[in-house]
Amino acid sequence: MRKTLSLDGVWTFRPDKKDEGEWRDWHVEGVPGGYEVKVPHIWQRDGEELVTYNGAAWYEKRFPFKETEGRIFLQFQAVDYHTKVWLNGQYIGEHEGGFTPFEFDISKVLLQDEENVLTVRVFDPEDNAEIPIGKQGSWYTRVSGIWQSVGIERRPDTFIESVKVIPDPDKEQLKVKLKVNGKLSRNAEALFTVCNHLSTDLAVISQKEFLTSNDIEYILNIPNPVLWELENPHLYDLEVAIGEDSMTCTFGMRKISFEDGRITLNNKPVYIRGALDQAFYPDTIYVAPSDEYIQKEIRLAKQMGFNMLRKHIKVEIPRYLYWADRMGILIWAEPPNYVKFTPQATKRFTDELTAMIKRDFNHPSIIIWSIYNEEWGLEWDLANDPVKQKHVEEMYDSIKMLDPTRLICDNSGWTHVKTDINDHHRYFVCPDQLISWKKDLDEFVIGDPDKNFVDGYESKGEPIIVSEFGVWGLPSVEKLKEHYEGVPWWFINQGEESHQEDYKKPTTYLENFTKYQLDETFGSFENLAVASQNRMFRAVKSVIEEMRKRPSIAGYVVTEFTDIEWETNGWLDYLRNPKEGFERLIDFNGPITVLIDKMANNVWSGEMVDLDIIVCNDHLRPFEGAVEWSITGTQLSGSIPVNSSGEAITRLNDPISFQVPEVTLPGFHQLELLLKTTGGQTLATNKEEMTITPRIKRSKGEISVYALNKQILTELDLNGYETIDYLDENLTVITDTLDEEILNFVHKGGKVVFLAEEGDRIENKGHYTFRELPEGESWPRASSFNFVNPNHFPGIPLHPEMGWEVDLLIPDYVVPFSDYKKPGSRRSINMFGSPGIARSSRVISGYFQGWVGQVGGSLIVQRCGKGTITLTTWKLKENYGTHPIATQVLDRLISMETKDLFIKETTATV
């Protein structure tokens, strides 16, 4: 029988900044001047200068051992990065790689009935370009040290080295690959016993086989097996006994494949609703604190509607995978990346990936292995480099040979060479980019699958998955400070140089929140955080619903499950608190959803509206029922019959049709949907935001228009204005140009509304310069936030976080207050912001990214001489008169007493 001794607990630890330990024989003389730590140990957790320390460090452990028989092995579950080991002053061996287990036979060195001294030197290099590192140290806090468990195990002279289980549910069989270390006796036998996991019931099967080789395969028949399913993740235990040794492994009877563009689990299509999980933690950094913590995370994931976690460029700890097996959530596993493409780096990477697959092979929850993520390690040149293309193809073939039972993604998110998953990383934010997002889905993602492959390679019908997308939602800083009893260390961004932009630094908000007048809109950062989370909920809802409406898409993986340090696009914050709207995530992320196609978010009283209904049914089970609908604050309601024969997507024949009722004042409303069976069971709910505005025709007085097009002139006339085409100092002037005549008018005391939605395309724009926001896919824009101060627009339904009420009005340009980088065809161009404009203006509406960085204005009132310019990049010119909110906003800008905005200001004395 095997016996184990845990060496976790108190060790002596000392950093070796001069790397002198070996020179001074610390492995013989003892580690001097150390302090006590508890292993598993990540030295960055010790704080202060160790947070950023890379280099050598030493560990020492003293322990007795009384076992005298068999062979003794020293086991490390993971040490980051390079490990050298001495026992009682004798060199045992070394290991390279920071994520997977390794062991040494210490039978001849271990002292019996005496104190043993175990000495370990860990080296984590500062230059990490050629080692598998993942995002620790490059994006977030570095991880170094003996970060997983250490132990000693006694085994018989002949022992089981590994058991590999390959289930075949179709044949009701189990293939077992057995590897034995040591000499076999002539009539050696192996006893295989299969039981239900954690059950004391009789064995499902018990079977003896002769051992004729140290490396051998067997077939075990399991009649009527209970399959591992998401709704019933049944597990079995396989015990293999050989002589004095035995080993038990847990497995599930399940089969993974793809067919007709869908991933199948046990021959049934499964729509992927996944979250990217980087598995960083606020206190323990890289290891989940407990089994209870893991279970809570998985429960929360399932409550939010997820059926998969993509373990992003990290070899997940075995306990997490065990609970994924047991609780029924799929895992997309992915090795940590390196950076520099060299023979040595690719070998290290291949070794780590191979070790990961061997360690985790028996986990039924794992259904996909990734190789690369976004060409990290391939130097972003896969499309143009045949050597790298061949390397990726060979990697796919070797991994498929190692594990033919799972799907393989060769290069997640970017161009593919040879893959089982045609996945995309597409960052869009809604409502800002809804039109662009639809176009991207229809013309690129599903419109041309071959376009996502390197030239010379093509799609073979692989499932199309959008495996990264997401939107930021800022967390409560007060909760973080309370948890950490102060400011977290990672408020000083721990990433490398490419992650030092202002919007990726939590400290940025401390300066910019008041500097750019966000305090006037939100009052406090805590209020801004709530608004940011509302914006996030609104955006991811729309992005996901557009994917679910398209049957060619096999699923998605949102970025991401939780916040990590400065990156705040998690559906849970870093402390694992649910963000705003958590209870409604299931509405659009659940197995059954009811959606509106082409929602009319802003309508006029009297308008006729038709809204199509789509039902998504991932369970693929037939049902009959109805969609009940109503609009809050009105008498409108109805019911639409549903008869689903089990299709994944059903577009109902009858739309929701109604005439918008008369209302007294503009206001917010909600379209509420309830999908019920004929038996009264609620299957799904959903809500859509609306505004209703009364059509009121009244005279609004005279205004001066200057150089405007005929369309808006007509709309201004229709909406009650008497327009004149000359400049009058007593009237508001509306224009889309700032030529010399207009600027002279303003300086003499005139009031101008400058419709600047065309940004730098405007020929005469005065001293203003503009920043054009990315039209298409953009990770930085997914961190963005558009805001407006509703106090300046009394009676107009506006959220401080600009939402669906301004769906068609959100700007493409802003006036940049902060410096920023403009993407170029060959390199980024550094562009300058104008913080002085913010100082001399009232910022009524604006834009920022991340932690209130990259700030710009989209509606500002600036003093110029004796007059004022109200500059807005909102899309008012093209929507005035037709869009209810655009019409009201421009009317308000015309009537606003802009000079009053500066009355409270005092003149500073220099």
Q: Can you describe this structure?
A:
With 910 residues, the protein is of the alpha+beta class. The chain has 5 domains: 3-155, Galactose-binding domain-like (Jelly Rolls, Sandwich); 159-254, Immunoglobulin-like (Sandwich), CATH 2.60.40; 259-588, Glycosidases (TIM Barrel, Alpha-Beta Barrel); 606-693, Immunoglobulin-like (Sandwich), CATH 2.60.40.3880; 701-902, Rossmann fold. It is built from 15 helices and 49 strands. The strands form 10 sheets. Strands 38, 39, 40, 41, 42, 43, 44, 47, 48 and 49 form a 10-stranded mixed beta sheet that branches. The protein has an 8-stranded parallel beta sheet with strand order 25-24-23-22-21-28-27-26, with helices on one face. Helix 6 (434-445) packs parallel to helix 10. The radius of gyration is 32 Å and the shape is globular. It starts with a strand and ends in a 15-residue tail after the last helix.
Feature tags:
Jelly Rolls; ten-stranded mixed beta sheet; Immunoglobulin-like; alpha+beta; 15 helices; single chain; disordered C terminus
The biggest sheet amounts to: 10 strands, mixed
Q: Which range best describes the helical content: under 10%, 10-25%, 25-40%, 40-55%, 55-70% or over 70%?
A: 10-25%
Mean pLDDT: 94
Low-confidence runs of at least 5 consecutive residues: 906-910
* Number of discrete helical segments: 15
The N- and C-terminal alpha carbons lie at a distance of 85 Å
Classified by CATH, the class of the largest domain is Alpha Beta
Find the CATH superfamily of the largest domain: Glycosidases
Q: What fraction of the residues are assigned to beta strands by DSSP? A: 25-35%
Shape, per Cα inertia axes: globular
